[in-house]
Design goal:
Oligomer: single chain
Number of domains: 1
Number of helices: 0
Radius of gyration: 16 Å
CATH architecture: Sandwich
Number of strands: 14
Helix content: under 10%
Largest sheet: 8 strands, mixed
């Protein structure tokens, strides 16, 4: 479990966690099997950058994939079979894939029921520590001009400039969506052994 340092509310530009270890039990899938919480920041913003380091053990099982920390706004973050309506929420999370690939999972009004994942290549390696960064600019309300950039180890792997997250200006980026687990929700996503992922230098600005 990752434990925040200090106050539960941080100012943008000074948000830091020391990091921590997430336990991923054998045979377990979905958010209840790992660690998931929303950490709000103040004030809400239209543009934010999240970065963190994640250490992947040499014996880690990719299986079919799983979630990694991202950004969120509102209360409707997707992943429950329903779609945000442009006023009530959104989320943007990286996912590791079956081969060490990486994609960005977006829950927003123009995405499918469980969110849409856009592939960003296969940059992740067993036994390595990677630096992951998400740069998110929300759209002008009602227009498809939102931007996200996904980078790994300083290399931009995925850039989209036509994203649609909101219809109202009051829906903004609220903070860190710390979401780490295997899945999916069916047994074919589950690992055959227990694993840990270690996170460090988590920064928001």
């Amino acid at each position: 479990m990752l434990i925040p340092n200090g106050s539960p509310i941080w100012n943008w530009g000074s948000a830091r966690y020391s990091g921590g270890v997430v336990q991923l039990p054998v045979g377990a899938v979905s958010s209840a099997s790992g660690c998931q919480f929303e950490q709000p920041y103040t004030p809400k913003v239209d543009h934010a950058r999240l970065s963190y380091s994640v250490a992947i053990p040499p014996d880690f099982e990719w299986v079919l994939g799983g979630k990694l920390p991202g950004l969120y706004g509102g209360t409707h973050l997707g992943g429950d079979g329903s779609i945000p309506d442009g006023t009530n929420g959104f989320s943007v999370r990286p996912m590791w894939n079956y081969d060490g690939g990486l994609s960005l999972l977006v829950a927003s009004p123009k995405n499918s029921t469980w969110g849409d994942a856009t592939l960003a290549g296969s940059p992740l390696r067993l036994g390595a520590t990677h630096r992951i960064e998400i740069d998110l600019q929300l759209n002008t309300p009602g227009q498809s001009d939102g931007v996200f950039v996904l980078s790994v180890d300083g290399k931009e792997l995925l850039i989209k400039t036509d994203r649609f997250f909101r219809t109202v200006p009051t829906l903004q980026i609220e903070g860190l969506f710390f979401s780490v687990f295997y899945g999916g929700s069916t047994p074919d996503w589950a690992p055959k052994s227990s694993h840990v992922l270690t996170f460090s230098q988590i920064e928001l600005n």
